[in-house]
Fold Iron(III) transport system ATP-binding protein.
Amino acid sequence: MASVDVIAATKSFGKTPVLRGVDLAIADGEFLALLGPSGCGKTTLLRLIAGLERLGSGEIRIDGEVMEGPGRFVDPEDRHLGMVFQSYALWPHMSVRRNVEFGLAMRGVARPERRQRVASALAAVGLTGLEDRRPQALSGGQRQRAALARCIALSPRIILLDEPLANLDAHLRHAMQQEFRRLHRETGTTFVFVTHDQSEAMALADRVAVMDKGQLQQVGTPEALYAEPATAMVAAFVGKGALLPVAVEGRSQGGSLSITLAGHRIESRGDAAPGPGLLCLRPDDVVIVPANFPGSLPARVAEVSYRGGHYAVDLVLPALPGHRIEASMRHAPQPGEAVSLQFEGGWVLAAPDAVRAEAA
Ligand SMILES: Nc1ncnc2c1ncn2[C@@H]1O[C@H](COP(=O)(O)OP(=O)(O)OP(=O)(O)O)[C@@H](O)[C@H]1O
């Protein structure tokens, strides 16, 4: 187990900046997901922690000890980290047992201890009995388990996982997510897990670090990211929130924010000064009421899709052309139906500069 500190890290490939000053503190024993769209720099940050890339500037510490910084670089093999990749990277000509044993043999671990550590790593991932199979004779999920067993057999102090479930189908992904949680609980090892799938990050991690264009947008618990997104990017990327332009009037005595949405006054929560703002609405913040219900905002049902137990209802607001809101309902309304909306919750952000300029 170990902590990781990334301090003011920058990295460029040629003239292209890929990390633009990243500060991230990962606690000992934490399960942290690095989440962001393709190309935002997640893998690069993971490879920097592993020592597989060199920093442009900044510092990386593991358990307080500088791994890379001005005048210092600790080789990857001396960092005692484990890595698991999307591609599994198993040796095709070796059995599962040999694949898991190989790293231990390279480290000079004696044969009896090797055998015992291989057996317990394979048992931990549920592969006991498949020791003699070659990787080609395993399913995708079993291959990923073998790669994980190879990693944990080495007892690394941190496990770095780069989209390890990306090649699996939805059902297997879900089962493996539960395996990762269990292994994390049982080993107490620090896990850093890269993914571009927000639902995976939310399901797995203690905290999620959201990246965009080489910068961290927000680091927090899944609940905090969902309920109180710090930026419009986080609001849109995590939980697919609708973002609507509002005017922030001010804070009421009870602490809520008074805002105006398309001329309709509502109370919400948020972190925005008076002026133009953005209201982030999740499906569970939206209540559909009959058309023209007093104190509600007119809307029209655009599309309805069944999601198992409830309907996802896509709504358009005549007063705000170009914007859509999703609500969740137990009974399906008719597409085209006129309804009205009330809001329970939501989160208000200061509008980004571009929206402010438009509103001015
Ligand atoms: N070795 C390299 N040489 C040049 N450019 C690179 C190299 N590795 C990564 N990049 C570029 O750096 C940027 C960040 O890449 P990175 O792999 O870190 O992103 P990512 O967020 O992990 O994306 P993905 O989810 O698609 O894997 C991308 O634009 C990528 O093309």
User: Anything to note?
Assistant: Residues 13, 18, 36, 38-44, 196 surround adenosine-5'-triphosphate (CB under 6 Å). The CA atoms of residues 1 and 189 lie 5 Å apart. The domain at 232-358 is CATH 2.40.50.140 (OB fold (Dihydrolipoamide Acetyltransferase, E2P)). DSSP finds nine helices and 21 strands in the chain.
